[in-house]
């Protein structure tokens, strides 16, 4: 699994010009699911993100997690995180899991991060054409790959 994590002040996700979900201070997680991802990837990634200390403490140092600040998390499916641009100019997505595999893993990740973090979780809609309005804080943007464990 690949997660692109953005520390944010506010996120609003719309589908068909209507607000579908929104959060205030917290994390926007764009989640890509690969064809060989499984529950072990979910457990590791959810734990890592829940405890990731990227929010500023009173001294201005990134020393607090989303749990510590009682933040919120929005999880949005993002198959394009598995884009390969090695050949030609049009990305290939053959490393992305097909929907019949990805949807249950996406739903399982949402359940697990809710458990691990204990904070409010919102989502996008798998496969929908979504528009995301984001106020990135910092900006702080981090990429985590469960296979690389980094």
Our measurement of the CA-to-CA distance between the termini, rounded to an integer number of angstroms, reads 11 Å
The largest sheet is: 6 strands, mixed
Our count of domains comes out at 1
CATH topology: D-tyrosyl-trna(Tyr) Deacylase, Chain: A
Helix content: 10-25%
Q: Count of DSSP E strands?
A: 8
Q: Overall pLDDT, averaged?
A: 95
Indicate the CATH class: Alpha Beta
CATH superfamily: D-tyrosyl-tRNA(Tyr) deacylase
Low confidence ranges:
none
SSE order in H/E notation?
EEEHEEEHEE
Please explain how this structure is put together.
The protein has 150 residues and is an alpha/beta fold. It has one domain: D-tyrosyl-trna(Tyr) Deacylase, Chain: A, CATH 3.50.80. It is 21% helix and 39% strand. It has 2 helices and 8 strands. Strands 1, 2, 3, 6, 7 and 8 form a 6-stranded mixed sheet that branches. Strands 4-5 form a two-stranded antiparallel ribbon. Helix 1 runs parallel beside helix 2. The model has no long low-confidence stretch (mean pLDDT 95).
